[in-house]
Amino acid sequence: MLFLPTMKWISVSLITGLLFLGFSFKSKVTGIDDDCKVLIAKSLKAIHEVKGLKYHLKITERSRKGTFNFYESAVKFQKKPRKIYLYIKGIEVLWVEGTNKGKALVKPNSFPYFNLNLDPMGDLMRQDQHHTLNEMGYDYLASIIDYSAKKMGDNFDEAFTLEGEEKINNRLCYKITINNKSFGYTDYTVGENESITSIARRHFVSEYMILEKNKKFKDYFDILKKGQVIKIPTWYCKQVTLYIDKFYMVPISVKIMDDIGLFEEYNYYFLQVNPKFEDAEFTREYKDYKF
Questions:
Q1: Looking at the domain that runs over 12-157+248-282, which CATH code has it been given?
Q2: What DSSP element (H or E) covers 168?
């Protein structure tokens, strides 16, 4: 099963910061009204203003075995209060903030055939996946981009590049690349009550990458001991290729590379931003669902 990113709320200060803190982005092309800095700021503003999303998602994620996992899902997402519905080849998932003791209602497409109530952060829903239900949406990606931009300091203009315009997933997009030339791994000493996920969130890196690099870990739930030394990435990735939809100004395709090669890729189709949902669409009784 697959569960892709949501992110935390993005403040207006994040958006205005990109415009006014002196971040320098360069463009390889001419004839585009906005430069890369402005386009990134507009995209972050658009993400901040997202109230809901509806789309078909195609995901490619590298596994720890070196092979790739491919997933497809139909997604309905509401930001406040958070409500998520996924359909994945006969599997249905419904999660609504403040209900069902925080668990997701899951209808499997195989044994057992009865509905399950599962922890979004539990092993059944996280198995061999890069992200959880909690990262659904665009905010998580935006927080990583913002963090990377600030961390790059005076080297921003060497990292963020507007490559031009391309048609991707049947949508006209701006193509932006972000290159983290100093990407690598560093030793990290585990602190009190830290987990693989908490370390990854604190440093804006991928917990799945931590699993890949530290072969002694079996999964996200391995217990870490204070003082233990592990390897963590210095950045979320080595390179991002980002396609920003010209109409909606949100990402329509995201390709993530590390020192090995392709790490993960997310492509959005039939995207609707701020669609009007019926209240019943986030209930198990909705006419189109089979819970």
A1: 2.50.20
A2: strand 160-168
CA distances from 169 to 97, 129, 165, 267 (A): 31, 24, 13, 7
Q: So what's the pLDDT on residue 32?
A: 62
Does pLDDT of 55 surpass 90? yes
Section 117-143 average pLDDT: 92
- pTM for this model (two decimals): 0.86
Whole-angstrom Cα distance, residue 257 to residue 29?
23
Q: Is the Cβ–Cβ distance between 259 and 181 less than 8 Å?
A: no
Look at residues 46, 40, 275, 64 and name the one whose alpha carbon lies nearest to residue 144.
40
280: left (phi over 0), alpha (psi -120 to 50) or beta: alpha
φ, ψ of residue 270 to 5 degrees: the values are 55, 40
CA nearest neighbour of 141 among 56, 251, 220: 251
Q: CA–CA separation, 27 vs 160, rounded Å?
A: 8
